[in-house]
Design a protein that fits this description.
alpha/beta
Length: 242
C-alpha cells in the first residue's frame, strides 16, 4: 500500500481487508443508515440534528418531509436535500413540541457540551412513540482515549490524514454522553426508552496504515472475549419516546 495514497483510499482498502477477515462486517455508518431506514415511517417528518453537509440517510424517501439543523450556518446552507434547514444547536431546537416522527444524529453526541439539555430537546420535539437514532464513538474504547489525549487544536490535521476529512468539518470533542451506561441514563431521564444499542468494532477508524490497522484489528479480537464487547469503538442506538 503506497503511503502517498489519499487517506480515504487507505481507509477503503483497509475496510475491504477487514471484511475478508470478518465476513459480514459493516462499518458503523452503514449500520446506522440501515437502522434509520428501518425505523422511518412511510410518511411523516424527520429531523437530522447536526446535518452539516453530509447526505441524509432518507434522502430518497418520497413520503417524508426532511428537516435539518446544524450550528454551522455555512455547512447547513449547502445541504440541498432538506425540506427545511436552519442554523441551530441541538440544545435549542426551533420546533414545536411533538413535531417529528423520527430524529437522527450522526457523529454529533461526542461534540455535545450539555447532553441532558440536548436529549431533553430531542424528547420534546419527538411525538409520543417517535424514535431517536444516533451513531457516535464509544468512550470506553481505547481509540477515544487516544483522541481525548490529543489537544482539540490538532484534531483537524489528524482527521484530514486518517479520514480525508476537511478541516472545516472537524469540531472539538467532549465525550459526555458516550458510554452505554451514560446513554441509557440520560435518555431515560428524558423519557426515551432503548429499543436497540449496537456496539460495532472498526479497526480502520484511526488506522494510519497497515501497521496500525493490524494493531487495532488485534484489539478487536480482544473485545470478542466474554465481558469485553462493551468496549467496541462505535455505538449505534435507537430510542423511543414513551
Amino acid at each position: 500500500m503506497s503511503s502517498s495514497m489519499p487517506a480515504g483510499s487507505v481507509q477503503g482498502e483497509l475496510r475491504r481487508r477487514y471484511r475478508r477477515m470478518r465476513p459480514g462486517w459493516q462499518p458503523a455508518a452503514t449500520l446506522f443508515r440501515e437502522m434509520v431506514r428501518s425505523a422511518a415511517p412511510a410518511s411523516g417528518r424527520v429531523l437530522d440534528v447536526g446535518a452539516g453537509r453530509k447526505d441524509f440517510p432518507l434522502d430518497d424517501a418520497p413520503g417524508l418531509q426532511l428537516f435539518g439543523v446544524d450550528p454551522d450556518a455555512t455547512a447547513i446552507a449547502h445541504h440541498d436535500t432538506l425540506s427545511l434547514r436552519a442554523a441551530a444547536r441541538g440544545e435549542r431546537l426551533p420546533f414545536q413540541d411533538g413535531a417529528f416522527d423520527l430524529i437522527c444524529s450522526a457523529w454529533v453526541l461526542e461534540h455535545v457540551d450539555a447532553p441532558r439539555a440536548f436529549v431533553r430537546e430531542i424528547a420534546r420535539v419527538l411525538r409520543p412513540g417517535g424514535r431517536f437514532a444516533f451513531v457516535t464513538p464509544n468512550g470506553r474504547n481505547p481509540v477515544t482515549w487516544v483522541i481525548r489525549a490529543i489537544p482539540n487544536r490538532l484534531h483537524p490535521s489528524i482527521m484530514r490524514r486518517v479520514q480525508h476529512r476537511d478541516v472545516k468539518d472537524t469540531y472539538p470533542v467532549r465525550y459526555r454522553i458516550n458510554t452505554p451506561r451514560t446513554v441509557d441514563r440520560i435518555m431515560g431521564e428524558a423519557g426515551l426508552v432503548r429499543e436497540q444499542l449496537v456496539l460495532n468494532g472498526d479497526p480502520t477508524y484511526l488506522a494510519l496504515g497497515a501497521r496500525s490497522f493490524r494493531a487495532w484489528a488485534a484489539l478487536e479480537r480482544v473485545f470478542d472475549l466474554p465481558g469485553l464487547s462493551g468496549a467496541r469503538v462505535h455505538l449505534i442506538g435507537l430510542y423511543r419516546r414513551a
